[in-house]
Design goal:
Length: 569
């Protein structure tokens, strides 16, 4: 330790000497004295006295005094509280904040509508429902609509009355309804070549009453659930000329889920009887459809058979394939689907008069066989508010029903059958675009090509049909709607002589073919909501005032405008 102190002291002295040397000014003198061998030639002038300065590091003690210990006690201003440590590491549940009671929206379940306008248009409509109860619903519906055109007897009216109910239990849903419908009209068809023909058209009226009941089990998430459904429907139909028809249809459905597979059976009994002045036909069907269904991720395949037994006036056993498939290529955007099936369709006077109300009362009834029907297409969405479906199909149909003008009364129609296998090829497309709640547009196009079996044409079957609907909500009170329907030309057959009855084979020598031009039917409408209870509406039909003809000699009513008010309660 002493040696280290000696070294430090020596270094300090040497440094101090250097500083002292720099602190002196050297002056030269003129006199030079020589003493022996040495000569003094410089004079040293001391500017300031020498003051040594020690560095701070030298001042520190190298050996601290370990006995210099001072005790320090901190003062605390808090107190300790005894508390048990909880070892619960679970995440505590968040308590939902209590919201203020929201005011329930007042639902309006009933409304009434009434209106009138040109073409002696009258409209009366009412709907009544029990309310919001989800487990029990019941209601009723009534509607009357009538119009009258410029031609003699060109008027019709329709009344509908319906009562329905539904009950939802823990196990199944029960529903039922009773409907009544009456259509009144006249055979007002006019032949332009005979201006004095049919000046006092005969009246016609159809009465239809129907009852239906259905039970369906509630859906279950169990992979091995058993589901079932059953429905019974019956109706009575009659016209002004003592034609009568009754039918009872019973359908049942049973399905067993086994994970991704479904095993099931659909069965149906269809009893029908038609009676006119000269004919009485009992036309019944039994259907059995066992199937197996695979439903996995993006794949739905249903494979089975359709067993059909005809009994009554006709007795034939037929077995058809029934296969459907649906594959999802891009979820929600693109799916491809296909179908292969066959069936027997039971024709009826009710179905015929719904399509063409100007029929004779003495109509021959027989079944139509759809031997083979192949369908393939795509469907999906292109984003929110956009959906599409396009399909192509080919069918082979035996004994397809067609309408022809009666020889004795050309303003009435008979039903004939295209005996043999008629081939039908078509394409159908549907599109829906909803830009927002304020704008929605839907459209559909159907193109079909018929290749008759024995007839020269498929009478009154248009090869092109287009429909479009547009809805525009300007605001909460005002909205507009537009609808357009386009139909291509059709062919009609007019006899020049009485055909052989019962009709079986066409005779071109006594037939004239009439071409009916296509038409466009445009309609516009507007609705205005005055307040929660009252509103007003206006509708314009056949805006282009064209002579639209669905059937030969029967022009539709021209331009007509009607409006009215609505009341909700």
């Amino acid at each position: 330790m002493k040696f280290n102190k000696f070294i430090y002291t020596t270094l300090v002295l040497v440094g101090s000497a250097g500083l002292a040397a720099q602190a002196q000014d050297v002056k030269k003198t003129e006199n030079t004295e020589k003493t022996d061998d040495k000569t003094i030639a410089e004079e040293i002038e001391v500017v300031r006295p020498y003051k040594p300065i020690l560095a701070e590091a030298v001042k520190l003690r190298r050996s601290p005094d370990l006995n210099d210990v001072v005790d320090y006690k901190a003062k605390f201003n808090y107190s300790l509280t005894d508390k048990k440590l909880e070892l619960n590491s679970d995440i505590n549940k968040l308590q939902a904040q209590q919201l203020a009671a929201a005011r329930e929206e007042e639902l309006i379940n009933n409304y009434a509508k009434g209106g009138f306008g040109s073409a002696t248009t009258t409209l009366l409509e009412a709907y009544i429902n029990t309310g919001k109860d989800e487990a029990l619903q019941a209601g009723g519906y009534f509607r009357h609509f009538g119009q009258e055109g410029k031609l003699p007897g060109q008027k019709f009216n329709q009344q509908e009355l319906s009562v329905f109910g539904r009950s939802i239990t823990d196990l199944a849903t029960f529903s039922g309804r009773v409907n009544y419908q009456r259509n009144g009209l006249r055979f007002y068809g006019q032949d332009p070549s005979q201006p004095d023909f049919n000046l006092d058209p005969a009246k016609q009226a159809f009465n239809f009453i129907e009852a239906e009941g259905e039970v369906v089990n509630r859906y279950s998430t169990d992979e091995n659930a058993l589901s079932y459904a059953a429905k019974i429907n019956g109706y009575l139909w009659g016209d002004k000329y003592d034609a009568r028809e009754n039918a009872i249809t019973i359908n049942g459905y049973l399905n067993k889920r086994i994970q991704s597979f479904n095993l099931g059976l659909a069965a149906g009994l269809d009893f029908g009887s038609t009676k006119s002045i000269t004919t009485k036909i009992s036309n019944n069907l039994l259907r059995l459809n066992p199937y197996i269904r695979l439903q996995a991720s993006g794949v739905k395949i249903n494979a089975g058979i359709n067993f059909v037994q005809e009994f009554g006036e006709f007795s034939t056993t037929r077995i058809f394939p029934l296969v459907t498939a649906d594959f999802t290529l891009v979820p929600d955007y693109l799916q491809i689907f296909g179908e292969l099936k066959g069936d027997v369709n039971r024709n009826s006077m009710k179905a015929f008069t719904d399509e063409n109300p100007f029929l004779n009362s003495d109509i021959r009834i027989q079944n139509t066989i759809e031997k083979m029907s192949i369908t393939a297409g795509i469907k999906g969405t292109g984003g929110p508010g956009f959906g599409y479906k396009i399909k192509a199909y080919h069918k082979k149909i035996t004994d397809m029903p067609l309408y022809v003008n009666n020889f004795g009364a050309v303003n009435r129609f008979d039903v004939i059958y295209d005996f043999g296998n008629m081939k039908l090829t078509g394409i159908n497309g549907e599109i829906t675009v909803q830009v927002s709640d304020a704008l929605r547009w839907t459209g559909g196009l159907t193109m079909e090509q018929y290749k008759p079996a024995s007839e020269s044409e498929s009478w009154f079957k248009p090869q092109a049909r287009l429909s479009s609907n547009l809805l525009l909500n300007v605001n909460e009170q005002l909205s507009f709607n537009a609808a357009v329907y386009m139909q291509g030309e059709t062919k009609a057959k007019v006899y020049t002589a009485q055909p052989v009855l019962p009709y079986s084979v066409p005779d071109p020598s006594i037939e004239n073919i009439v071409t009916m031009k296509g038409f466009v039917d445009l309609g516009l409408g507007a609705d205005y909501k005055i307040n929660k209870q009252f509103g007003a509406f206006l509708k314009v039909n056949n805006l282009m005032n064209s002579n639209n003809r669905r059937f030969l000699y029967y022009d539709n009513i021209g331009l007509n405008v009607f409006g009215g008010i609505t009341y909700s309660f």
